[in-house]
Design goal:
The chain has 279 residues and is α+β, with helices and mostly antiparallel strands. The chain has a single domain (19-277), classed as Endonuclease/exonuclease/phosphatase (Deoxyribonuclease I, Chain A), CATH 3.60.10. 22% of the residues lie in helices and 30% in strands. It contains 6 helices and 15 strands. The strands form 3 sheets. Strands 4-6-2-1-15-14-12 form a 7-stranded mixed beta sheet. The longest helix is centred in the middle third of the chain and has 16 residues, at 163-178. The chain is globular, with a radius of gyration of 19 Å. Residues 4-10 and 12-16 have low confidence and may be disordered. GO terms for molecular function: endonuclease activity; hydrolase activity. It holds the Pfam family Exo_endo_phos. Residues 25-269 form the Endonuclease/exonuclease/phosphatase domain.
């Protein structure tokens, strides 16, 4: 009897409780009006591949890039377990691409959400520094319903041309992380349009960890994240998409989901997936 009581007491020790995990995805889904009708890349054709990939992965939280609002509507119609937040980068409402956030409404509660611009005037619709296009980041705070824990989630898309804009965007995001309450749990996803040896990546690495480097289980090693729909098969795949986490979080696993469907690509980027321990 004493042995049984001892075993039961051990089972309820806090240190033995399983850490609450969050499955996070970052995915540049390629803008919906960018590909010609009649091609396999045309959004009405490939949206089903993208939805299938998401459905099989079942992430709790998704940061999308290049997501036009009609694309978000299409995906959520096929994936009703998700709620979403997004604002168009060209008017702060519905026009243009967005850095949309999708989340499992049975697991997460959205506490706050805001779209800001990667520019000298983040609160206004604007184009920053030497950027070619308006660029945004979405700043959210969530509560995990089971554990009650809260965390911050940022999702972004850096400019593809402006070198100054890329660096200043990284410094702006670093400042956003720095001003959060001490010991905050922070997740950052995005298409950063820079590689791991770049100054913007190194600036972010001062405050956050690249999940690909710190994951306990590295399910994908040396795998690029941009495929260009395979249009240039001889070109090396670039690593320009990342999932960053604050240094007080453990990453259980990291994966680049680069599946194809009978040779067809869901997007010109791969989906990144990280499992993070919130405790």
């Amino acid at each position: 009897m004493k042995f049984l009581l001892l075993m039961l007491s051990l089972l309820v020790l806090p240190g033995l409780a399983q850490a609450e995990q969050l499955k996070l995805m970052s995915y540049n889904i390629r803008c919906g009006l960018c590909e010609a009708q009649g091609t396999p890349q045309y959004w009405p054709e490939r949206k089903f591949l993208l939805a299938h990939l998401i459905q099989t992965q079942q992430p709790d939280l998704i940061g999308l890039q290049e997501a036009e609002l009609f694309q978000v509507h299409d995906l959520v119609a096929m994936l009703p377990q998700y709620q979403w937040y997004a604002k168009g980068r060209d008017d702060g409402k519905t026009k243009g691409e967005s850095t949309a956030v999708l989340y499992r409404k049975d697991k997460l509660q959205l506490l706050s959400a805001k779209t800001l611009w990667l520019s000298e005037t983040p609160e206004q619709v604007s184009k920053g520094w030497d950027a070619n296009l308006n660029r945004t980041f979405t700043k959210t705070q969530f509560k995990e319903l089971k554990s009650g824990q809260s965390f911050y989630f940022l999702n972004t898309h850096f400019d593809h041309m402006g070198k100054q804009a890329q660096l200043q965007s990284a410094l702006l995001l670093k400042a956003e992380v720095d001003k959060l309450p001490k010991q905050s749990k922070v997740l950052l996803t995005g298409d950063f349009n820079v590689e791991p040896d770049s100054a913007p990546y190194l600036a972010l690495s001062k405050v956050l960890h690249d999940s690909a480097l710190v994951a306990k289980d590295k399910l994908s090693k040396n795998v690029g994240t941009f495929n260009g729909f395979g249009r240039e098969p001889d070109s090396p795949s670039q690593t320009i998409d990342f999932i960053f986490v604050s240094k007080n979080l453990q990453v259980q696993s990291y994966q680049v989901d680069n599946r194809r469907y009978n040779g067809l690509y869901p997007s010109d980027h791969e989906a990144l997936v990280a499992v993070v321990e919130l405790d």
